[in-house]
C-alpha cells in the first residue's frame, strides 16, 4: 500500500509568486534611505454581485479605461491624492511611505544600534493573496452596470466565465459599510477545524518527526497555524535576521502535516527566532483572501527582534482571522516587562488595508488567536511544592499561582481573551532529550510558559463562534527544554449566500441612490481645539475628537493639506484615521498623537519648528464644507537629554548626560547579566530622562531605574545625536580604510576635538565591560551593538541591501579594532 505521508508530501506545493504575500515589517536591518517597495496590488474585498442573470464568479483585479496603458499588476494608489489620481510603478520605482499610512505607528526610534540603519524610511510592501485567475482572453469583455458600479464579464482561457471589478470607488466603499451592517441577512455559518501549535525549540534542529504533535488528530484540520520560538540562537541570526534553520523547520513541518489531506502554504513570516506558518487544505485556497503579515521587535530601543511578535491576518470566506506568535521577556521576576512586551505588540502591530484605508490592528478581526512562549511563570511556591502538585495532578491548585492567570484576572494583559483548562504538565523546563525536570545549576522551576489563547470580536458574535476541542502538550518530543503545545478549534466561519447577497446589495444601492439625491452630508465635532500640555522626547501625548454624522447621508471625510503643502499634518503628529466614512447617526473617535523622536526633534531644538498646527478636515463631495483643528501645547517643547549635541564648550569635555550615564553604569552595572542585551522599562526611562534633565552631575549620585533601563538610555542618547560621535563627513573615508587600524586612527585624530573626546571616553568605558564575565559581553558583541551608533551613514549615504550589510560589517570591524587597542 502506498505510504500516506509520502503521498501527502508529494502534493505540498506552496503558493506561487503570483499568490504570495510580502511581509510588512518595521524591523528591516538594512533598509536603504529611500527603500524600494514592491508594486502594491490592490483588490477590493468581496465585490458586489453581478445582475441576477449572471452567476457568481471568482474575481481578479482589472483597470478602468481611464488608466489604459498601465499594467494592471503595477497600479498603485496614492491615498493622499484624489480618488482618480493613480500612478503606475515599475519594480524599481521608489515608493516612499506617506504619513497617513504610517504602520510603524509609534516608533521608539527609527533605528536600533547596529541592527537597523538609523533614519531609514520603512517602505510599505503590500501584496494581497488572491486567487490566481487566468485572465487571458481574445474576446472583449461585456460590461454590466448596477447603479454606478461596473462589472466586466469575459470568457477566459480556462473556458470559465470570470468577473472582475474596477478599483474601489468611494461609492463602492460606502456599499461595503452598508452591506456589513446587513450581513446577517445574507450570511450563514460553516464550521472549520483549525489546529494551532506552538513550540520553543531552543535552537535545536528538527532531528525527530513532528507527527506526534502536528498530525496527532484522527481527522485532518482545515487550517494549520504553527508557531516556533528560538528557532535560531546564533549571533548571525540575531544581527542579520538570516537563518538556514527557517527552511529546515519549514520542511519538517511540511513532512508532518496530516496525511489524509493535501495542504498548501498560505503564508509564513520569521523574525530572528520567531516563525509563524499558516497552511490550508488545497480545496480552501480559493476562499482565503487578504493575506498580509507584520512583525514587531520589542528588544532594546523597541526594535531588537530577539523578543517580540510575528502576525498573519487573512480572510476566510467573510470572516477575518489574525494569528500572533510571540516570545515575551524571560525570567521569573520580569512580569512587568512581559506585560510591556504584550502591550507593545498590540499597539505597534498593524496590517495594511489593500484599499488604502486605516490599517488593521490585531483586535479588528472576527477571530484573534495568540500563541507562543509567553514566559509567565509560577509564583510564590517553592520548587518542591510545584513538583508535588504536578505529580499529584493538582493543576487547578497550581494555576492559582500562574502569573498569566493572575495578570489576566487583574486586567493588565490579554483583556477579553480566553484560555482552555490547563490539564497537562507544565511545558518548561526539561533536560533536553528527556521528560525530566531541569536539574542544571539554575534548576528552573516548572512553568506553563507555552500558551494558546483566543479572543472573539466584540462585533458579529452571532456569526463567529470559537469552540476549543482540545488543549494539550506533547511530551514525546524531547529535543528542546520546552514541550510543544497544541489546541484544536472548531470555528464557525461566515459564508455568503450569493443569491441573498445579490438581493440585499440591490436594495442598498437603490437606498444609496435616493440618499445621494435628497441630502447633503453634514458633520459635527466634539471640539475644535486640541491642547496637549507639555510634550517630552519619546513620550506620546494623545488627545481624541469625536465626529458625528448629523445628516441623512453617509459622510466621507479626509484630512487635506493646506494650500501649497503636500502633507496634511506635521511629522511629529499621527492621526489614527486620516480618512474614512461615517454612516448617518453614527459617531467615530479620532485620536491625535504627538510623538517626538530623533527624526523630528532637531528642528524643534533649533526653533525651526514649533508644536502647533492647523488641520483641515474636508467632507468629500461638499466643496465648501471644511472643519479646522488648532493644535497647541501649553509648553511648546521640553528639550531632553536624548536630544543633546556633542558640545565643545562643556566643562566636562563630554556632555554631562553622557558622563552621568557612564558613571552610573561603571559603578553599578559592570556585573549586570545581559547588559545591553535586555530592554528597559518605559516608565523607568521617563524617570531617567527627567532626572538627567533636572539634576546636576555629581559623583555617586545614581540614576533611578534598573541597570537595563540606564543602559538603554545610553543607546538612545547616542542614536538621537543629530551628528554622530564620528561625524557623517568622515564616514566614507572610514569605509575605505576599515581594514587598516593605523590609517583609521590617523583619520579619527582629525575629527573635531569635542567629538574625539567623546569617542575616547566611550571606548575607554566599553573596554572595561568584557573584564567582567557576569555581564555576558565580549568585544565583538559590544562592537556589533555600538558600531551602528558611533559610526553611521547619513540619510544620503545609505546604500542598498547588500552594500549596507557590507558597510555594517566594516563599521563593526573598525570599532572592534579600537576596543582592542589602548586609547
TrEMBL record:
Residues 641-823 form the Rho-GAP domain. It comes from the Eukaryota. Its main location: membrane. Residues 46-55 have a biased composition (Pro residues). Residues 1-60 are annotated as: Disordered. The keyword rRNA processing does not apply. Keywords: Cytoplasmic vesicle, Endosome, Hydrolase, Lipid metabolism. SMART domains: IPPc, RhoGAP. GO terms for molecular function: inositol phosphate phosphatase activity; phosphatidylinositol-4,5-bisphosphate 5-phosphatase activity. It is found in: Cytoplasmic vesicle, Phagosome membrane; Early endosome membrane. Its EC number is 3.1.3.36. Gene3D superfamilies: Endonuclease/exonuclease/phosphatase (3.60.10.10), Immunoglobulins (2.60.40.10), Rho GTPase activation protein (1.10.555.10). The keyword Flavoprotein does not apply. Pfam families: Exo_endo_phos2, OCRL-like_ASH, RhoGAP. One of its GO terms (biological process) is phosphatidylinositol dephosphorylation. One of its GO terms (cellular component) is phagocytic vesicle membrane. Belongs to the inositol 1,4,5-trisphosphate 5-phosphatase type II family. This is phosphoinositide 5-phosphatase. It comes from Ciona savignyi. The lineage of its organism: Eukaryota, Metazoa, Chordata, Tunicata, Ascidiacea.
Amino acid at each position: 500500500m502506498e505510504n500516506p505521508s509520502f503521498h501527502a508530501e508529494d502534493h505540498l506545493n506552496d503558493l506561487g509568486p503570483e499568490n504570495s504575500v510580502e511581509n510588512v515589517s518595521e524591523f528591516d536591518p538594512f533598509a536603504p534611505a529611500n527603500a524600494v517597495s514592491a508594486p502594491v496590488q490592490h483588490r477590493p474585498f468581496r465585490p458586489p454581485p453581478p445582475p441576477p442573470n449572471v452567476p457568481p464568479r471568482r474575481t481578479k483585479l482589472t483597470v478602468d479605461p481611464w488608466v489604459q496603458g498601465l499594467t494592471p499588476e503595477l497600479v498603485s494608489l496614492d491615498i493622499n491624492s484624489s480618488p482618480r489620481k493613480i500612478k503606475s510603478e515599475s519594480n524599481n520605482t521608489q515608493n516612499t511611505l506617506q504619513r497617513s499610512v504610517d504602520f510603524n505607528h509609534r516608533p521608539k526610534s527609527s533605528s536600533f544600534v547596529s541592527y537597523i540603519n538609523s533614519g531609514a524610511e520603512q517602505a510599505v510592501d503590500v501584496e494581497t493573496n488572491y486567487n490566481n485567475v487566468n485572465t487571458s482572453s481574445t474576446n472583449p469583455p461585456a460590461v454590466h452596470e448596477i447603479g454606478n458600479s461596473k462589472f466586466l464579464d469575459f470568457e477566459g482561457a480556462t473556458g470559465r466565465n470570470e468577473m472582475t471589478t474596477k478599483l474601489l470607488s468611494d461609492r463602492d466603499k460606502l456599499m461595503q459599510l452598508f452591506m456589513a451592517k446587513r450581513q446577517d441577512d445574507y450570511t450563514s455559518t460553516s464550521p472549520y477545524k483549525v489546529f494551532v501549535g506552538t513550540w520553543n525549540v531552543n535552537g535545536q534542529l528538527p532531528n525527530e518527526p513532528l507527527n506526534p504533535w502536528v498530525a496527532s488528530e484522527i481527522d485532518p484540520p482545515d487550517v494549520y497555524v504553527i508557531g516556533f520560538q528560538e528557532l535560531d540562537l546564533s549571533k548571525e541570526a540575531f544581527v542579520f535576521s538570516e537563518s538556514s534553520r527557517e527552511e529546515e523547520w519549514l520542511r519538517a513541518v511540511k513532512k508532518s502535516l496530516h496525511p489524509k489531506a493535501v495542504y498548501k502554504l498560505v503564508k509564513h513570516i520569521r523574525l530572528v527566532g520567531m516563525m509563524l506558518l499558516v497552511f490550508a487544505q488545497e480545496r480552501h485556497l480559493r476562499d482565503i483572501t487578504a493575506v498580509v503579515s507584520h512583525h514587531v521587535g520589542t528588544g532594546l530601543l523597541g526594535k531588537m527582534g530577539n523578543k517580540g511578535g510575528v502576525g498573519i491576518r487573512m480572510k476566510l470566506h467573510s470572516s477575518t482571522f489574525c494569528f500572533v506568535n510571540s516570545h515575551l521577556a524571560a525570567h521569573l521576576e520580569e512580569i512587568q516587562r512581559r506585560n510591556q512586551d504584550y502591550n507593545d505588540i498590540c499597539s505597534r502591530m498593524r496590517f495594511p488595508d489593500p484599499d488604502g484605508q486605516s490599517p488593521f490592528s490585531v483586535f479588528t478581526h472576527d477571530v484573534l488567536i495568540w500563541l507562543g512562549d509567553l514566559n509567565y511563570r509560577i509564583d510564590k511556591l517553592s520548587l518542591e511544592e510545584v513538583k508535588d502538585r504536578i505529580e499529584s495532578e493538582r493543576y487547578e491548585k497550581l494555576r492559582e499561582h500562574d502569573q498569566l492567570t493572575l495578570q489576566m484576572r487583574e486586567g493588565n494583559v490579554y483583556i477579553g481573551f480566553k484560555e482552555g483548562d490547563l490539564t497537562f504538565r507544565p511545558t518548561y523546563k526539561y533536560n533536553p532529550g528527556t521528560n525530566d525536570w531541569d536539574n542544571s545549576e539554575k534548576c528552573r522551576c516548572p512553568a506553563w510558559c507555552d500558551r494558546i489563547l483566543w479572543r472573539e470580536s466584540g462585533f458579529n458574535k452571532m456569526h463567529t463562534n470559537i469552540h476549543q476541542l482540545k488543549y494539550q502538550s506533547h511530551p514525546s518530543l524531547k529535543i528542546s527544554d520546552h514541550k510543544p503545545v497544541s489546541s484544536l478549534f472548531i470555528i464557525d466561519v461566515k459564508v455568503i449566500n450569493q443569491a441573498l447577497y445579490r438581493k440585499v446589495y440591490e436594495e442598498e444601492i437603490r437606498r444609496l441612490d435616493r440618499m445621494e439625491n435628497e441630502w447633503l452630508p453634514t458633520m459635527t465635532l466634539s471640539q475644535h481645539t486640541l491642547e496637549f500640555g507639555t510634550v517630552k522626547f519619546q513620550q506620546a501625548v494623545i488627545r481624541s475628537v469625536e465626529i458625528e454624522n448629523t445628516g441623512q447621508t453617509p459622510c466621507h471625510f479626509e484630512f487635506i493639506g493646506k494650500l501649497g503643502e503636500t502633507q496634511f499634518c506635521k511629522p511629529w503628529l499621527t492621526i489614527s484615521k486620516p480618512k474614512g466614512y461615517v454612516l448617518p447617526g453614527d459617531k467615530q473617535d479620532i485620536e491625535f498623537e504627538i510623538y517626538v523622536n530623533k527624526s523630528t526633534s532637531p528642528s524643534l531644538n533649533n526653533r525651526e519648528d514649533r508644536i502647533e498646527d492647523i488641520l483641515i478636515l474636508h467632507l468629500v463631495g461638499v466643496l465648501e464644507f471644511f472643519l479646522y483643528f488648532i493644535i497647541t501645547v501649553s509648553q511648546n517643547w521640553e528639550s531632553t537629554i536624548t536630544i543633546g549635541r556633542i558640545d565643545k564648550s562643556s566643562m566636562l569635555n563630554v556632555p554631562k548626560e553622557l558622563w552621568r550615564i557612564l558613571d552610573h553604569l561603571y559603578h553599578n552595572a559592570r556585573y549586570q547579566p545581559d547588559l545591553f542585551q535586555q530592554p528597559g522599562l518605559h516608565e523607568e526611562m521617563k524617570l531617567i530622562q527627567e532626572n538627567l534633565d533636572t539634576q546636576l552631575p555629581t559623583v555617586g549620585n545614581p540614576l533611578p531605574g534598573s541597570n537595563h533601563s540606564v543602559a538603554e538610555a545610553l543607546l538612545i542618547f547616542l542614536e538621537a545625536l543629530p551628528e554622530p560621535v564620528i561625524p557623517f563627513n568622515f564616514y566614507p573615508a572610514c569605509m575605505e580604510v576599515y581594514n587598516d587600524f593605523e590609517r583609521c586612527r590617523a583619520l579619527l585624530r582629525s575629527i573635531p576635538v569635542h567629538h574625539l573626546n567623546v569617542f575616547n571616553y566611550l571606548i575607554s568605558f566599553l573596554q572595561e565591560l568584557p573584564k567582567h564575565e557576569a555581564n555576558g559581553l565580549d568585544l565583538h558583541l559590544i562592537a556589533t551593538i555600538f558600531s551602528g551608533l558611533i559610526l553611521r551613514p547619513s540619510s544620503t549615504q545609505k546604500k542598498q541591501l547588500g552594500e549596507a550589510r557590507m558597510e555594517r560589517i566594516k563599521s563593526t570591524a573598525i570599532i572592534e579594532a579600537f576596543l582592542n587597542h589602548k586609547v
